[in-house]
What does this fold into?
Amino acid sequence: MNPRTVTDRVSLLGVIDWDRTIFDSLIPLPQGTSYNSYLLKGSEKIVLLDTVEPGKAYILLNQLSNIDHIDYIVSHHAEQDHSGTLPQVLERYPMATVLTSDKAKPMLLDLLQLPEDRIHVVKDGDTISLGDRTLKFYYTPWVHWPETMVSYLVEEKILFSCDFFGAHLATSNMFADVDPLVLESNKLYYSQIMMPLANFVKKNLDVVETLDIDMICPSHGPIYNKPRFVLDAYWQWVTGLPKNLVVIPYITMHHSTLHMVERLTAALGNLGVTVKPFNLETADTGQIALSLVDAATVILASPTLLGGPHPSMANIIAIAALLKPKAPFLGFIGSYGWANTTVRRVESMVEPLGKEWLPPVTHKGLPNEDTYAALDRLAETIAEKHKSIGLAG
Ligand code: FEO
It folds into this structure.
């Protein structure tokens, strides 16, 4: 990618990584990603905001080939995808100083072994003058690590948000406009990176809303030239009611649990409740995470294996515990061969999530009419619970 003009003072640099398929060996990237870096030219000072994945350093250095002087490099976040090329940029520009938060400085020293005298800590609310432009820093911890901050170009009303509002999306479009595909990628990113930290995200949204913003320039995905598009979506995901939606991650060995899932799904559908079942044998964990942004109820469905849930279910419970979805209701259904021990195990595994535990439904072997009736009653309970929190029936 060649440098692209955002405004007459701001250029978009960085890398569109079309081929990356996973992040942190954990997060699937079905649409690739980008590592955005921005070059900001004031009348007296030049600033580079964030860098790129170290494996892509050559691309950023090539984009900077006509730039013979950089005064500051802002490091909003110490993670490798944004700070990993700092050593090479500092080597190219021996006059440059890294500006970062107090918590990021020791991280940059630990992770990249940068020379300490090349790093200057900026405090929350500090400004630097670039001549005819001013950059102001705001500490926004935990979007995504504890050290994260954002910066605001005062005269142009541009927020540089790094991971905050990012989207793992490789696209040749520089601006998001109001593209629903961008929003879907952004929501997927939110579900896996920001949702576990929703309390902090809300505090940082409050900070951002104090600013007059014409444009949000994140370090992943396209630029938000209509910032309310992403701000309003974030408010809904963080503080809005969940939807009238039940997510059912399930696994089945001899189809007894599958029959139970099918009956519950049909009964909920008859009551006007939307259902998303995910077969854990094939389901994409990213899509499960995405659905958990909106779900009001999660029903775990698993047969018993050696006295506990199937390992695929244990894995999804561990993921849910990390993601901290806002669904207030949680339940369990499943079959067993000889010992009805899984409910107790699952209940103790999900207790830290702090959800309202719905009456479980279990059955020995192939479900019969009594069990199907119990599943119908569970569906009615769920529909009533949803109405009780204001969701349409
Ligand atoms: Fe895009 Fe937390 O790094």
Notes: The domain at 4-239 is CATH 3.60.15.10 (Metallo-beta-lactamase; Chain A). The chain has a mean pLDDT of 96.
